[in-house]
Specification:
heterodimer; A: about 325 residues; alpha/beta; six-stranded mixed sheet; 13 strands; elongated; B: about 280 residues; five-stranded parallel sheet; 9 helices
Amino acid sequence: MNRYETLLLDTASRDERLVVITAENRGHMRTVPPMLGDRFIDVGIAEQTMIGMAAGMAVRGRVVVTHALAAFLTMRAFEFIRDDVAIANASVIMVGMVPGVLSDGNGPTHQAIEDVSIMRGLPNMGVFCPCDESEFIDGMRVLLESRRPWYVRYISTPDLAIDRVAFEPGVAAVVRGEALHRPNVTILTYGFLTRQCIEAAEELGRDDVQVRVVNMRTLKPADEKAILHAAATSELVVTVEDHLLTGGLASIVAETLMVHGKGAHVLTIGFPTWFTPGRLDEVLTNERISSSAIAQRIRQRLADIVHAAVKPPSSTHEVSHD
Amino acid sequence: MTVDERNELEQAALRVRQHIVRMSTNGGCFIGASLSCADILVYLYWRFLNISPMTVNAEDRDVLLLSKGHDVPALYGVLAERGFISKARLKNHLSVGDHIYWHPNRAVSGVEFHSGSLGHLLSVGMGMALDARMKGLPTRVVVILGDGELNEGSVWEAGLVASALSIDNLVAVVDRNHFQANIRTEELVPLEPLAEKFRAFGWDTMHVNGHDMESLDECFGALQLSTGRPTVVIADTRRGKGLPSIEERADRWFCNFSPEEADALLDELAGNSRATLTSETLIVR
């Protein structure tokens, strides 16, 4: 039994409101159906129906976890999420499988790399993108009590060796370089690529480039203080995400700096378009989002800044997609 | 059903239609579809559904959902006549100071779920029906579907799943007025044979004259739940029913009448001469 299954079964035993619905995506919850009985429902390959049903149950007091492939959950069923879950502000926790780069060899139809953008665009909706299995479990415990809708990027990768800060929506966690007073670089990231960012920071540290890594954890609400602090204390802010460069963390940082009238050098690392599918390690290399590629891109950007010898104007911000 | 009982229901339906006509001015409403389901809603709220203003939040209440939400003036008329909301409140139609507009809002007492985009509430209703079943409650969930709405694939997806999950406390009522927004259903995306389609999806099917209280009484009186199958009632209706001057007219789907026209239509409802309508016909979608 994995920790997700344990969480669902523990919660269900304590809280009779919990119902789990899947659109025939049982791979990570094989033990749940027999143990939950009629509180586990498999609707088949029918994401719209799954979401509509979840909303109908939630407005009658249920807490519903829906589990499906992230791409189909967020995009096939999008209007149902918008109309039936978000407008109703219903307690539905939507867990998306193989989000971002984790769809590895499936190809663009299965790539949920627009998911953060479209889900954070909905009023009432929260977006949680954990970096490893422990963060997923810790966050889910809180979200299951939150009585509001959430989209969650599922992750079951081995835990990172990081200090844990109690999960709180809208509060980022510094996962490397906490003690640095004025780091050269602050990397803002979330989800699977947090590991790559920590490794890139280690590599840069060996070259005397001081790097702090901040794990945003929730993209909505996003931790604005963490973003403004990064801009105020670092020579370069870097966003790293397995998401399109439109609408995700890069956009959140741009919006935040703009609204607060702050400027910064920002390097945005993400996907300009759907990525070339393949084995995960090859995708990371090919898309230049491996730890060494991230380090190299940061080094290059720092060199460009020094070369141009420009300082960011105080009332505007500068974003470049390298 | 006695003559008096039938008379009471027909009088209630007339009052509901008067409310609908009053909502068709000063901004207008989707009058055609509202009039076609008015008798069905009156029958259900007076004779079938276990729900009242006193039990509007009771866990074991029956639930009615308008999946084709643009017929909501009929529901608001019914809710006002049944005392869920005040009749005076209907004058707030399209005022930003209230929640009464062209599609249902759950903030209005008696409205169980919002709608507007077609093809949503069959699955929402399935969730409610399953929730009730899990809790061992006698709740029945009735979902009003438009026939044009049956173009939406999500209705049929939900229909398959409802059958697979044996949701037998679920009743879909198709307001079969034979029109979609601008055209007759059979001229655009033919639905017939409709009952056969539902039967092929594992549903029990029933037919009813959706404007005849005795026919409605026979149908819903004979309704068998606990069969292991969901039920669809195909209600034969006429768009714009009750107002011969707009009945079955493709161009009278959404109407925004002048106050004078509305008065003439109220006369027409009362059985007087047909109204002369000069306001622009609107095709909105």
